[in-house]
Design a protein that fits this description.
151 residues, two-stranded antiparallel ribbon, Arc Repressor Mutant, subunit A, 2 domains, mainly alpha
Length: 151
């Protein structure tokens, strides 16, 4: 921890005592100077705490605000051309319908790679998550690693 921050935090109670004493005994300029000093100490401590939150917790409101304010497109990243996306769920259901005996996820992933080359970084993980979603929707079922279309 930065020694300046520790010093600023330790000064806060002393400055508060000085301000209270100044309020009752001394003039307004002394009071203003004391309040300004206290505010600067508090600002240092608050800045330090914000830095710690950003670094270690990453769940503070200010970190969320910074993420929300950050640009959405990363520099150097290609944008999608057109608004049409490959519909993986429909593709998987079609392939399961065409093969009534069922298919393994690796086979579906190979078909997906051939149908949409370069559309997915890891087609097997896309197929696995799609099959899990279709199973939850009761549109596909799994028996010993072989997936079929539910009736």
């Amino acid at each position: 921890m930065d020694p300046k921050i520790i010093k600023a935090a330790k000064e806060i109670p002393m400055r508060l005592k000085e301000i209270v004493t100044g309020m009752f005994e001394e003039s307004a300029p002394t009071l203003r100077a004391g309040v300004a000093g206290l505010r600067s100490s508090l600002a240092k401590v608050e800045n330090y705490l914000n830095d710690v939150e950003k670094e270690h917790l990453a769940s503070s409101a200010s970190a969320k605000a910074e993420r929300a304010a950050a640009p959405t497109a990363k520099p150097g990243r290609k944008k999608r051309r057109g608004s049409k996306r490959f519909k993986t769920g429909d593709f998987v259901l079609t392939k399961l319908t065409e093969n009534p005996k069922g298919l393994r996820p690796t086979n579906i992933a190979k078909m997906l790679s051939e149908a949409a080359p370069g559309a997915h970084k890891n087609s097997l993980s896309v197929v696995n998550s799609t099959l899990a979603r279709l199973k939850a929707q009761k549109k596909a079922s799994n028996k010993n690693g072989v997936w079929t279309r539910s009736k």
